[in-house]
Design brief:
Blueprint lengths: L22 H23 L7 H22 L7 H26 L3 H28 L5
Helix pairs in contact: 1-2, 2-3, 2-4, 3-4
């Protein structure tokens, strides 16, 4: 007969999990980085939407920080703290919403076309936000 007051044995192991990035994150990083570099270059050189210089510089800093986080996720590097990325996520969200709003407003298209553009862009933007969210979550499992 077992002792009723005896604590049960813990079946959980004391292993600590270490995040190891997948090859897919690396491929995605190297696909999106040239697109972002080209986008930032065009923003400064062409400035199609007549944005002010301060906004172009702020946007460059924000998206550069985004790709630093993306690099950390793709190559399992610990950059900054989860708290920093927790504060950065709403900042990138507001920036993306503002940029998309600026682009849609300056195109002067019909409402249906604007909705179609938003319908096509939304999954991409949500996935890009997910990258920072994911990095914030796995940061504690990195060396």
């Amino acid at each position: 007969m077992q002792d009723v007051y005896q604590a049960t044995e813990n079946t959980l192991s004391d292993e600590t999990y270490i995040y190891k990035s997948s090859f897919t994150w690396k491929i995605l990083f190297f696909l999106l980085l040239p697109i972002e570099i080209l986008s930032q270059y065009e923003a400064f050189v062409l400035n199609e939407y007549n944005q002010s210089v301060w906004w172009l510089i702020a946007s460059f800093i924000i998206y550069s920080t985004y790709f630093v986080g993306f690099y950390g996720l793709a190559f399992a590097r610990r950059i900054a703290t989860p708290r920093f990325w927790g504060f950065f996520l709403p900042l990138i969200m507001v920036t993306d919403i503002y940029e998309i709003g600026t682009v849609v407003a300056t195109m002067n298209m019909a409402v249906l076309r604007n909705q179609l553009i938003l319908l096509c862009i939304s999954p991409i933007v949500l996935f890009l936000w997910f990258i920072i969210f994911r990095y914030r979550k796995v940061l504690r499992y990195m060396k």
